[in-house]
Every structure is written in structure tokens, then in C-alpha cells.
Design a protein that fits this description.
With about 80 residues, the chain is mainly α. It has one domain. The protein has helices at about 15-35, 40-75.
């Protein structure tokens, strides 16, 4: 799998880290559109795939963090 230079894939990332990564990918897309790089279909397809995966990971991490906090505050759900 292709890794963008300077990006590592740690086994655990917090929602705020995933959100930052998502925003960076969105900024990369905007830059590609502004500079004409968006005309390279394969590049844009890879970038859009990375954005979709990053978004899914961010949402999953955020929901998990919220549920974990709720569990710590209120205890386990019963019933």
C-alpha cells in the first residue's frame, strides 16, 4: 500500500489525530485543484480513496472515544 512521505501508520491513533490527517488530505485535494494536478485521474482517485478511508477511521475513532468516555462516566449499560 502506498504511504505518503512523512506519514506513518501507528497502530492506534486518537480521533483528533485522525481529524488532522483528514484535514491535511482535504487541503492536498484543494491544492491539487488549484494547481491543475487534479487532471491526473489516477492521483485524484488515490487521493479520494485516502480521504474516504481517513474519514471512516476518524468517525469510528470519534464514536469509540465518545462511547468509552460515556462508559467511564456512567458505567456499563444494563438490559
Amino acid at each position: 500500500m502506498y504511504q505518503r512521505p512523512g506519514w506513518e501508520s501507528p497502530s492506534i491513533m486518537f480521533a483528533h489525530e485522525l481529524h488532522t490527517q483528514l484535514r491535511e488530505l482535504q487541503a492536498e485535494r484543494a491544492l491539487a485543484q488549484d494547481t491543475g494536478v487534479a487532471a491526473i485521474a489516477s492521483y485524484m482517485a488515490d487521493l479520494e480513496r485516502d480521504i474516504a478511508r481517513s474519514h471512516a477511521a476518524f468517525v469510528g475513532a470519534a464514536v469509540t472515544e465518545i462511547a468509552t468516555l460515556r462508559g467511564q462516566l456512567s458505567g456499563r449499560l444494563q438490559g
